[in-house]
């Protein structure tokens, strides 16, 4: 998977907006100002940072060498994973969905309703 393929998938989510975080050299994807994905490079490899439950983050890190704690975000629930590693694209898309749903849950209900309109 490439950066552009992942960005395209993220931007198709209702309410998704992207911005550049120049200090981190990353593209941040947010829903109503709540971060759900950060697309960047790590060790010259395409990567994305996504939010999960702490339990899922631990499980992913134990089972996949290409998944590790995020450098700039809360390490208990934000993991970075390589897009060009052995993790199947379908699993990466599922993790994007999980991260987007967690971000959406933090958005006030009145704003959430307008996203689906």
From TrEMBL:
Gene3D superfamilies to which the protein is assigned, alphabetical: 3.90.1150.30
A Pfam family recorded for this sequence: YjbR
UniProt feature coiled coil, ranges: none
Domain of life of the source: Bacteria
Record-linked PANTHER family: CYTOPLASMIC PROTEIN, CYTOPLASMIC PROTEIN-RELATED
Name of this chain's protein: Putative cytoplasmic protein YjbR
């Amino acid at each position: 998977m490439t950066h552009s393929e992942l960005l395209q998938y993220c931007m198709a989510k209702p309410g998704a907006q992207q911005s550049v975080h120049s200090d981190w050299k990353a593209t941040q994807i947010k829903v109503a100002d709540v971060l759900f994905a950060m697309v960047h490079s790590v060790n010259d490899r395409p990567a994305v940072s996504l939010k999960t439950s702490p339990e899922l983050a631990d499980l992913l890190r134990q089972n996949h060498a290409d998944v590790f704690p995020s450098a700039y975000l809360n390490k208990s629930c934000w993991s970075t994973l390589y897009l060009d590693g052995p993790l199947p694209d379908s699993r990466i898309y599922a993790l994007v969905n999980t991260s987007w749903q967690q971000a959406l849950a933090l958005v006030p209900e009145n704003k959430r309703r307008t996203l689906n309109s």
